[in-house]
Amino acid sequence: MVENAVQRRLAAILAADVVGFSRLMGQDEVGTLAALKALRIALIDPKIAEHSGRIFKATGDGVLVEFPSVVNAVTCAVAIQRAMDARNADVPDERVIQLRIGVNLGDVIIEGEDVFGDGVNVAARLETSAEPGGICVSGTVCDHVSNKLPVTFTDMGVQTLKNIAKPVQVYRIGKLPTTQPAQTEPPTIILDKPSIAVLPFQVMSSDPEQEYFADGIVEDIITGLSRVRGFFVIASNSSFAYKGKAVAVKQIANELGVRYVIEGSVRKPLNRVRITAQLIDSETGAHLWGERYDRPIEDVFAVQDEITDTIIATIEPEISASERERARRKRPEHLGAWEFYQRGMWHLYRRNRADLIAAQSLFQRSSELDPEFASPHAALAVSFFFFITHGITSDLTATVNELFSEASLAVLLDPRDALGHSALGLAFMERREFDKSIVEHRTATSLNPNSSFAKFAFGYALITTLRLDEALEQFDAALRLSPRDPSRWSYLTLKSATLYYLTRYEEAVACARDATRYSVADLIWPYVHLAAGLGQLGREEALVALRELRHRRPGLTISGYRNWPHNRNNPGSDLEHTIDGLRKAGLPE
Fold it and tell me: How many CB atoms lie within 10 A of CB 205?
């Protein structure tokens, strides 16, 4: 039996609960529970996932969540309350559900999946101090985010909180504005690619063997990242010049001319190895990602390869996400081709009509600035694919042609761009040229074995050809490669669909539920397979899933689902199987 290690660390904790829960339950117990479940599925859990939060405790009327940064925690709190305001706008007063939220940054104890300690307790007490629909934060939170987010803080003074030994400085926080304020900073020099330096890992021992092992890990990470097209990676000779020197990360970044720095440490107690790694944005000093790896060391080279591959696969999407967010915050006149592309990618991941249209405009602007840049054409092709799958296109034939044209151009401009081959594989899939589709997806995954999107797209094509066991392997690989991917919900949704087609309904429902916790915007797909799976199982919960599905797509019927653009283009036994489940769930004809 393996015991869970106990850790102590600084953590950002969000606590939220429902105002007047007992009163609501007294008025209508069944209706309240159904409303709260729908609220969790449709709003709260997706917002938490969107900001990289992890729910570690949930009760009937509340949640406790850990975030990787206090900025994420506060932004999520404000986003939830803003969404609640919008949701409650047309709800009768007696049925309105309001939340109170508290956010704290403090020391916690991690044991397995649970989190304890004063950091959690203070967050919970701050939540009870908040007004209905409001947010209260501790002084430490205010100190960390006051210059990073456009929020208003009201000082509520030092307060004695129940069962908390020391008084706490409390602030009430206002709402984020719906539009970002105009920025006045002067233009900066734009780097064409994200630039990265991997520093020598610190060895927590005087054993020279550990020095060799640590240097090997760093060399492998540098080599692996260098294979990722679109990244500029400092050569090891330059990075290793800082070995054993106590130099600030920002100074190193300035001297090497990089935006991101990876640093870490290695320790080898007895027959195990422990490696920590973290990714730092040198411009802000923010820690974008950090992880610890504990492994038995029976085969030192196998362990080295495994940890190196994991770090590379994790860091690539983290840097890409940071680039998208960085580009989104800049004024358009400051953007180069790369940043127009990254800004477009930020919109692309949101998947709704307005964002997809914005993404297409940005990709087109990027390609105008650099006609030889393949990635905007590949991403533009993917946006057309989403127009089809999300039912946005009004002219299916024209959209498929645009998908094929942009994907073909991307591959022509850069035959070694994995995203271009994935997009072309999707285009062939929509044209029902399945053999050609599979070839393109195989090419994409061989060009970039660490691309979660390439695995996802390959799995999509395999589903369409009913190679279901192979499809499952691709979706599982995508989820392993990028556990915090903004498209995680779609990986889970397609995995759920695959399990459904295999008639593994219990697993399909569990996977679809997981997908709903990460879903963005008003997308219906996780709820399609959740409702269909519950329908096949004869569960009453199918009605709740169906209600949310039709809330997101008012008036949806069996006929409407059958005529969905992507379904119309890919008829088959899997479509009829899904329709059978939706019919059993209660979707009208």
Answer: 13
Helical residues (DSSP H) of 89-133, grouped into ranges: 118-129
pLDDT of 494-539, one tens digit each?
899 899 999 999 998 999 888 887 766 567 788 888 989 999 998 8
Neighbours of 168 (CB within 10 A): 22
User: CATH number for the domain including 496?
Assistant: 1.25.40.10
Instruction: From 255, 316, 322, 317, select the one nearest 288 (Cα to Cα).
Output: 322
Counting Cα atoms < 13 Å in the Cβ hemisphere of 274 gives 7
- Residue 32 CA neighbour count, 13 Å, CB half: 18
> Is residue 303's pLDDT more than 50?
yes
Please check whether residues 536 and 398 belong to one and the same domain: no
User: Under a CB-based contact definition with an 8 Å cutoff, are residues 148 and 137 in contact?
Assistant: no
User: Which of the two residues, 34 and 533, has the higher pLDDT score?
Assistant: 533
Q: CB burial class (10 A; 0-12, 13-18, 19+) of residue 160?
A: exposed
301 lies in the same domain as 402: no
DSSP 536: H
Rg over alpha carbons for the chain, rounded to the nearest Å, is 25
> Are 415 and 559 members of one domain?
no
